[in-house]
Amino acid sequence: MDINQNGFIAYLNSLHNLGASGANALAESQALSPYFGELYEPFPLINRLVEALTDVVPRVVVLTGHAGDGKSTVALDVLKKLQNLPPNAPLNEPLSEREDIDGPGGPVTIVKDMSELSAERRQRWLDQAFSEPGNWLIVSNTGPLLHSLADYAKQANYDQDIESAILKLLDQSLSDGPLDRHSLSVFDKELIILNLTRLDNVSLGAKILTKLVEHSAWGKCDECSAEPACPLQLNRKALQDAGPVVEERVRWIYQRLSAYEQRLTLRQIVAQLAFGLTGNMSCDEAYQQIEGSVLEGPDRGTEGLERILFSEGFFGYRGGKPWLPAEGLHAVMLVRRATFGAPVGVDFERRLSSESSMGWAALPTSLDWLGNKWRQRAAESAGIRWRFALRRMAYLFGEVEQDKGQFAAVFLDSFLQSPSLREFDNWQKAGKLTLSRSDANRLRSSCLRVLLEVFSGFTASQFHSRHDALYLTLRRSDLAVVQPTQLVIETLPFRYFDLSFDLIRRVPVLNFDRGRAELALNLPLLDYIRRRDAGELGNALSPIHQAQLDWFRAKLLRVTETRRREDEIELLRAGIDGEVHLHRFLLDQKKGKLEQV
C-alpha cells in the first residue's frame, strides 16, 4: 500500500503542544506557513486599524492582551494591507523587531513586540513614537505596556494620572464602531489602546474549525491508497457531513466558557480544534490502525476513528475515557472541568441506547457503525462512559429533526448547563432582543421577581400572585439572621422597568426609569434568574454577580433619593403562614403619633 505523507496533518499536530513540534502555534511561524493563509479569519477591527494608521491625525496605536490573543497576527495583517501584499500569502521572512513602512498617509512604524525589549529601548522608542512624524502600531503585553507608558509620562512631566486612564481604556469592550472610546489625548499624539482580551473571539474561533475541515491541503490525501479507510479522513468526513451544526455547537461551548469567566485565547482555541481533528494521530499511525483492523473496506478505519472522533477529542476523551495527555491543552482542561454530557432526563436516557436519534438528533450516516457499537456498549451494566460518549456525539453532530425542536432544546440547554445561552447567542447575532412583546414582559417580570428575592430575602411565592413592585429594604448585608420584618426604603413599581439591548457590551439590559439605572444581564446572571424563577434553589450566585446586583441596588437608591417622603414609613412583614404583607404608616411629628394607612 502506497502511503502519502500529507504535510498538512503534521502542521495540524504542530498547532498544539502535546507533541514535540508545537512551534507553528506561534504567530512568527504562522506568517511563513503556506497553510496559514486559508485558515486565517480576519479580525473585525483590521480595517478600522488601517484607517487610524493612515489618517492625517498623528496617532500611536497599541495592541495589548494575553499571549495568544492574536496581537502579532493583527499586526501582520495590518502590515500586509499597508504594503499591498496578498492577505493569504505567506511572508518570505519573519517580521523584524521593527518594521518601517511608507504608508499612503505617511510613514507607519510597526513594533512587533515591545515586551521583548529592554526598559531603556522601550522608553527610546516611545519617545520617537510620540515626538517624530508618522504613526506607530505597537504590540505589547499589558504589564510592560502599563509600566512603560507610566514611566514615559513621568519622564515627560505629564501631571495626569496616566495609569488610571490607561486602566480605564483596557477595560473597554472591543466592538464595531469608531475607536474614539479607546483614545487618550494627553501626549503629543493621540494614543489608542486596544485590549484584545476584551474582544469577543468566540465566533472568530469557531469559524476556524470550518476552515480547518475545508482546507485545500486535504486534497493531497487523494493520492494516498489508505485514504478511503483513513481514520483522519473519516473524522473529517463526519464533520463535513454535519456541516454548520458542528461550528455552531462549538461556538456555544466557547461562549459558555467565556461568559463564566473562563475565556480562552485564540491560540488555545485553535490548539483544541486541531487536536480534535487529528487526535494527535500522524499519517503513519493512521496507516497502522488500518493495517491492524480485521474489518473490510472503509470500515477498516473505524477502530482508529474511535480513538480520535472529534466529539471525544474536543472534550478530552478517547474511547469514552478521559485521556490525561489531552489535559495539557488548557481549553480541554476547562471543558473537562465543566463535565459536559451529564444525564438529561429519564426519557432521553431510555432512548440513548436504543435509538440513534435520541428522540431529536439526526446523526451523519458516516457515524452509523460507530454509533451502533457504542449503543450496544451503553446498554451494558458498565456502559456509563459510553452513554456520556453518545451524548457528546449527539451534541456535536446531531442535527435537529423536523418537529423535534422542543426535545432538542431540552437536551441542548441541559448539555450546555445554561437555560439562556442559545437565546442569548441569537440576541448577540441579531444585535437586538428577538422577543415578542409578551415574551419580553415575561422576562422582565422574571428579572424583577428574582431581584425582589435577592433584595428582600423573601421568596417571590411569599408575595401575592398579582404583586408588581420591587422593594428596597434595610436588610443586613451579611444575611446572618432571618429578618421577618424589614423597613422599606423605596417602593418601585414594575412598570418603571423595561428591557433593551446594549450594542457595545452586547448584552440585554434591565433599565429603570428610561435608563437612570441599568443592570447588564450577562449570561451567568440571566441563567441564575431563569433558574430561580423556575423554582431551582441549588444554584448560588457568584460573588462577582452578587456585587453587580448590590451595585444596581445602590444605584436605584441614589436615583430615587428625592422621591421619598420623610413622614411615610413602610414595613414588609412575613406572617406566621409565610405570606409577606406591606404595612404603611404615617408619622405625625407634631402629635407624635404613628397611624397605619
Write structural notes for this entry.
With 597 residues, the protein is α+β, with helices and mostly antiparallel strands. It folds into 3 domains: 44-197, Rossmann fold (3-Layer(aba) Sandwich), CATH 3.40.50; 202-426, no CATH class; 431-596, no CATH class. The protein is built from 24 helices and 18 strands. The strands form 5 sheets. Strands 2-3-4-1-6-5 form a 6-stranded mixed β-sheet. Strands 11-12-16-17-18 form a 5-stranded antiparallel β-sheet. It has a 3-stranded antiparallel β-sheet with strand order 13-14-15. Helix 9 packs antiparallel against helix 11 and helix 9 (202-213) runs parallel beside helix 12 (266-278). The longest helix is centred in the last third of the chain and has 20 residues, at 437-456. The radius of gyration is 29 Å and the shape is flat. It starts with 6 loop residues before the first helix and ends with a strand. The model has no long low-confidence stretch (mean pLDDT 87).
